[in-house]
Amino acid sequence: MEQSGTTALLQGAVQDLASGVVSALRGGDHVTVSGAIGEDTPTANLVLPAVRVLGADLLLPRVLFRSQPDLAELAVFRKAVESFPARADAAPAVRWSHWAMRRTLRRFEAAPDGAPGQDTAPDVDTDWLEGAGWQYLTHQLAVLAALAVPGEACAVTEVARSRPVDVARGFVRAVRRRDWQQAAGAGRWLTLLDGVPAELGLETGLDFVELMGGGDPRVALQIQAARVMRAAGAVA
Amino acid sequence: MLVRSHDKTFEEVIEIQAADVEAALDPAEPDGVYRDSRECAALAVLEGGGKLLLSPPTPRPKKG
């Protein structure tokens, strides 16, 4: 499908951010986004939209490695949350991704008494996933891979937990369709789920997805996230 | 006034991009492009002949 100029620019900006997250997940530098906001360049205006599209995963290294983002990093994240609110009639994936960012923001924004912020209930349900075919389920879970974080369950996590074999089937299908981004997202979910068939060969499958699609930083991000979580023995 | 003008421009940019952002957050599934033999070979090397569901389907005998 042909992309508009704006769409291509946005996707490029998202990939740049994703590269930074991959580097941080591999133990490199932390993600740098704040510097571009004040720049007077044509792409500076793409920073906030790109942060919104990458979503909660921007701060994933901070979550997985239990470190605190710096104030500038958090300010850009917050600005993206505020600048692109999810409309009430937006697609569930859009609303859940916004909730995931709000959850991450609350995690790092201390309450006045210094206690960590508490999650608030999502303003979106999982009705659209109830009874969904395994193909659609896997596609939607992959789109919402930022919700696949150890120890941070939500209603979408519960749906994924209840259908590990379907997600495994979706992973295989995505690989066979060469949809590396969907395969990587599904693989990240599978890393957190119990009941995944051992004969799937998830680890080898993730290696293969990285080999074939790892040139796309968004794919590399999901694979690296899965590896970090797997190494930590994480479960959803 | 300069600040207000700048804010207005920023809001317009945001508004223009909101649709792009939403589209990026809820992408349609792309058309499938199936694997070729080179990739099957790469997968076989990776797996080392072990068990994996990613192998092509077993050919079935033709009816009749």
In short:
The complex is a heterodimer of chains A (236) and B (64). Chain A has 236 residues and is mostly helical. Chain A is built from twelve helices and no strands.
Structural key phrases:
heterodimer; A: 236 residues; mainly alpha; 2 domains; 12 helices; 59% helix; globular; B: 64 residues; 2 helices
Overview of the structural elements:
Chain A has helices at 5-25, 34-37, 47-54, 60-64, 71-83, 92-108, 134-143, 155-162, 164-176, 180-192, 202-213, 217-231. Chain A is an all-alpha fold. Chain A is built from 12 helices and no strands. Chain B has 64 residues and is an all-alpha fold. Chain B is 55% helix and 0% strand. Chain B has 2 helices and no strands. The N and C termini of chain B lie far apart (82 Å).
Helix and strand arrangement:
The complex is a heterodimer of chains A (236) and B (64).
Chain A: H1 5-25, H2 34-37, H3 47-54, H4 60-64, H5 71-83, H6 92-108, H7 134-143, H8 155-162, H9 164-176, H10 180-192, H11 202-213, H12 217-231
Helix pairs in contact in A: 1-3, 1-12, 3-5, 5-6, 7-9, 7-10, 9-10, 10-11, 10-12
Chain B: H1 2-25, H2 37-47
Q: State which percent range the strand residues of chain A make up.
A: under 5%
Helix content of chain B: 40-55%
- What pair of chains forms the biggest interface? A-B, 42 and 30 residues
Strand element count of chain B: 0
Number of helices of chain B: 2
Distance between the termini of chain A: 35 Å
Strand fraction of chain B equals: under 5%
Uncertain spans of chain A, ≥5 residues at pLDDT below 50?
none
Largest sheet of chain A: none
Mean pLDDT of chain B comes to 66
Written as H for each helix and E for each strand, in order along the chain, the element string of chain A is: HHHHHHHHHHHH
